[in-house]
Amino acid sequence: MALMKGGFIFTALIIGCMTAATTGTMVGNSTVNATLGQSVTLPCVYNPNAPLDKHSMRIYWQYQAGKDPIAMKMYNKGVMEMGTHINKKYQDKAKVAVEELEKGNFNLTLDAVEHSDQGTYQTVFMYNDKKVLECTNWVHVGAEFSKPEVSVVSCVTSVEKVKEVEVTCRTRGGFPRPSIRWSSGNCSADQEADDKIKESSQNKTFVVRSRLTVNASVGQKYTCSIFNPTLGTTQENSVTVLQCLVPKPFPTTICVIMVAVVVVAAMLFVFFACRKKNANRPREGTTAAAASAAGYDLETQKLQGNGNYGNHTDEHDSKIL
Ligand SMILES: *[C@@H]1O[C@H](CO)[C@@H](O)[C@H](O)[C@H]1NC(C)=O
Ligand SMILES: *[C@@H]1O[C@H](CO)[C@@H](O)[C@H](O)[C@H]1NC(C)=O
Ligand SMILES: *[C@@H]1O[C@H](CO)[C@@H](O)[C@H](O)[C@H]1NC(C)=O
Ligand SMILES: *[C@@H]1O[C@H](CO)[C@@H](O)[C@H](O)[C@H]1NC(C)=O
Ligand SMILES: *[C@@H]1O[C@H](CO)[C@@H](O)[C@H](O)[C@H]1NC(C)=O
Ligand SMILES: *[C@@H]1O[C@H](CO)[C@@H](O)[C@H](O)[C@H]1NC(C)=O
Question: Which residues cross the membrane (predicted)?
Fold first, then answer.
């Protein structure tokens, strides 16, 4: 009885050992969306029932964009191979944790993702020269768009009024081509936006400008949403239509004070100018013409000054508009 039981356990052990390395759960075959400039991990995990013997292991990682696969890394019987068949580009760019391989973690990390890293990656694990696991990762590259700047270049004069205004949304730095959505409150805008999407020459990212013309009233909020189809993320921002500021009449007391200051300053200037002239050239004297010329100049300066002030207020108002 005891002998039989021992034999059964022994048999079970042998069978267990034989299947240990070739059964187990696997993780692989996935779509991975990577962010431009950052690193990304391509998962490939094998959970063996018993520890793996590194002398029986062979793993290779390869990349396929065109026809022929490119060898990135190769692990053979306990060592990472550095042969000429391994592509130089991936020596530093691609990383695997060597000490983790015996535990079945064949994850590969790619640093500083570029557009050219988009493609198919394969990890093949062989145990005692038999293929045990093959992981395929499809890598898509995307870049996040900047938070959009949303602006409205107009205002509405009164709360009851409706006015046609132009709302603009700008963003950049993202990839691939985004989809743009406008909404107001819970409703998406039914008007057609005028979109301009340009590819930057340096790094293939996109510069986006979208313009929406709407009949808006005061307090209406417009939201611009930029959706990145690869990263699955949305960047958005809003603007609210404002009521125009009514230009305030310029306070008369300040006007009077300013005119008085200018007049006094002008008088003092003329006074000192005359004295200086008299002192420098006592013989020539001061002609009435010279004095009045100085006075005339001051007068024009003063007028120009006032004119500028008026323009400035106008400009200020139109900006708020
Ligand atoms: C991944 O897909 C390949 C076929 O494309 C298949 O042979 C392999 O078993 C799959 N691996 C996993 C871990 O699902
Ligand atoms: C392998 O990479 C995947 C994806 O980043 C991660 O979820 C997983 O935890 C990694 N596995 C191990 C064992 O580190
Ligand atoms: C791409 O280039 C644009 C300028 O054209 C720059 O603003 C952006 O930061 C760059 N993005 C990356 C990821 O290098
Ligand atoms: C928008 O929708 C949410 C729920 O979907 C609702 O609670 C909210 O009142 C709505 N807002 C407006 C302005 O219609
Ligand atoms: C705004 O309203 C006016 C008058 O009803 C109309 O002619 C115009 O097409 C409208 N504009 C938009 C963008 O809906
Ligand atoms: C990854 O990118 C693909 C293709 O661009 C897309 O279909 C998928 O939804 C993305 N996955 C996630 C999780 O965002």
Answer: 250-274
User: 286-319 pLDDT, tens per residue?
Assistant: 444 544 544 444 444 444 444 344 344 343 443 3
Across-strand partners of 166?
213
Measure the CA angle with vertex 45, ends 118 and 85; round to 5°.
55
- Tens of pLDDT, residue by residue over 61-113, are 999 988 889 999 999 999 999 888 888 889 899 999 999 999 999 999 999 99
Q: What is the C-alpha separation between 289 and 218, in angstroms, rounded?
A: 59
The Å distance, Cα 186 to ligand 4 centre, comes to: 6
* Residue keyed to tokens 């093949």: 124
Does 205 sit in the ligand 3 pocket, CB within 6 Å? Answer: yes
CATH label of the domain that carries residue 153: 2.60.40.10
Residue numbers of the domain that contains 186? 149-240
Q: What are phi and psi of 240, to 5 degrees?
A: -115, 135
- pLDDT tens figures, 193-240: 999 999 988 888 999 999 999 999 999 999 999 999 999 999 999 999
Same domain, 106 and 190: no
Query: Is residue 37 in contact with ligand 3, taking CB distance under 6 Å?
Result: yes
Going from the Cα of 241 to the center of ligand 5, the distance in angstroms, rounded, reads: 16
Q: Is residue 5 part of a domain?
A: no
* Ligand 5 mutation pick, 152, 182, 215, max ligand atoms within 8 A of CB: 215
Nearest ligand, measured from the Cα of 26: 1
Q: How far apart are CA 181 and CA 178, in angstroms?
A: 10
Report which ligand 2 atom has the smallest distance to the Cα of 100: 13
Cis peptide before 229 (omega within 30 of 0): no
